[in-house]
Amino acid sequence: MRLGIIGLPNSGKTTIFNALTGSNYPTEPFSSGQLEVHTAVVSVPDPRLDHLSQVYKPKKTTYATVTYTDIGGLDKGIGEGGLSGPLRNELAQVDGFLHVLRAFEDETVLHSLGSVDPIRDLAVIDGEFLLLDLIAVENRLARLEEERKKGKTDNKQQHAFETALMEKMHAHLEAEQPLRDLDLTPDELKLVRGYGFLTLKPVLVIVNMGDDPNTTPPDLAYEHRHTQVMALHGKLEAEIAQLDNPDDVALFLAEYGIERPSRERVLQASYDLLGIHSFFTYGDDEVRAWPLRKGGTAVEAAGTIHTDLARGFIRAEVVAYEDFVAAGSNMAEVKARGKMRLEGRDYVVRDGDMIIVRFAV
Ligand SMILES: Nc1nc2c(ncn2[C@@H]2O[C@H](COP(=O)(O)OP(=O)(O)O)[C@@H](O)[C@H]2O)c(=O)[nH]1
Ligand SMILES: [Mg+2]
């Protein structure tokens, strides 16, 4: 899973990237506004995996990971001229956005639009993304029309399907609605997913609140699908992320009345937003957490581990994590209780399922 951190210059993107990843990239009061990208991979903490690791004492314990990309270089007006190839690529590649809004006042930090106004800033970037998607849809429609004129439509039905879809999307974007609010069938979604439309991607809006722990976040009244809003104190959280000693962290959190570091909150929210949960594989060699979309089947889970496992899938041995713990974390006891199930390829995997795939290639 790949999440892109976006927002206006000086909103605190790099600061929050540092907070989420424990990195220490310099943050500056005057942003260059140039394309600048940082990437880091973080493990997703999971107490259940910690427990499995204690039980199996494997050679290796592997947590699920999330890749964060701090994408500098967006600003008002950027949609008009179209995006540079590299920036477009970075944006298209991510599975979802963390959209950082500046709510903190600080005279020493420049604001590219002259004043602190998170609601306006949200609308500014949204407007740019709408425009970019609109241009992309128009380009696609022009291409489809060209193909039609040249008679290069080998599959007429497919051509008509896509044309109708692009027209529907066009109307929606012209009404200034993000594509994530549009009803799309699974077939339609499958077709457009590869195009990397920006307003289709889920978004976690992060209000960067500043240094006073008592400020209340502004009400953004931001009601869209596949969207969540969260407030945090970017600079404080970045400082916390630099602390090594857990006692220091606890003190710091208590002092500022922060219940849970935003590293964890953001990961949790991102999983929810992208509709992802985890299953586990286990054994003496490795215990591991794997991300899977909710609704994903046993054969999809197998494919996440290795394509061979999906290709040669026979059955999956499935144990619910809770049943494992209830049986004293003892697999023999799990079996004695009849809690190990043999499931076929279409079994819908649940959060926390412990899975061993039987396969033959
Ligand atoms: N006072 C204050 N300054 C912040 C906060 N978050 C970021 N900044 C400052 O704002 C400036 C720009 O931050 P940076 O993370 O580089 O923004 P970016 O351009 O969006 O990557 C830096 O001087 C940061 O120290 C915050 O929560 N409070
Ligand atoms: Mg930056």
Spell out the helices and strands N to C.
Answer: EHEHEEHEHHHEEHHHEEHHEHHEE
Q: What's the CATH superfamily of the largest domain, by name?
A: P-loop containing nucleotide triphosphate hydrolases
Care to count the β-strands?
12
For the sheet with most strands, the description reads: 6 strands, mixed
N-end to C-end Cα span: 28 Å
At CATH level 2, the architecture of the largest domain is 3-Layer(aba) Sandwich
Residue share in helix: 25-40%
CATH topology of the largest domain, anyone?
A: Rossmann fold
Bound chemical compounds: guanosine-5'-diphosphate, magnesium ion
What's the number of structural domains?
A: 2
Give the CATH level 1 class of the largest domain. Alpha Beta
Low-confidence stretches: none
Return Rg in Å. 23 Å
Task: Describe the model.
α1 (13-21) packs parallel to α7 (234-241). The protein has 13 helices and 12 strands. The mean pLDDT is 93. Helix content is 40%, strand content 21%. The strands form 3 sheets. It has a 6-stranded mixed beta sheet with strand order 2-4-1-5-6-7, sandwiched between helices. The chain is flat, with a radius of gyration of 23 Å. The relative contact order is 0.14. It has helices at 13-21, 47-56, 85-93, 118-149, 156-174, 186-193, 234-241, 246-255, 262-274, 298-305, 307-311, 321-326, 331-336; strands at residues 2-6, 36-43, 60-62, 65-72, 96-102, 203-208, 227-232, 276-281, 286-293, 313-320, 341-343, 353-359. A hairpin with a 4-residue loop joins β8 (276-281) and β9. The chain folds into 2 domains: 2-272, Rossmann fold (3-Layer(aba) Sandwich); 295-359, Roll (Ubiquitin-like (UB roll)). The protein is α/β, with parallel strands linked by helices. Residues 7, 9-15, 27-29, 31, 72, 104, 106, 109, 208, 210-211, 233-235 line the site of guanosine-5'-diphosphate. Guanosine-5'-diphosphate binds at residues 7, 9-15, 27-29, 31, 72, 104, 106, 109, 208, 210-211, 233-235.
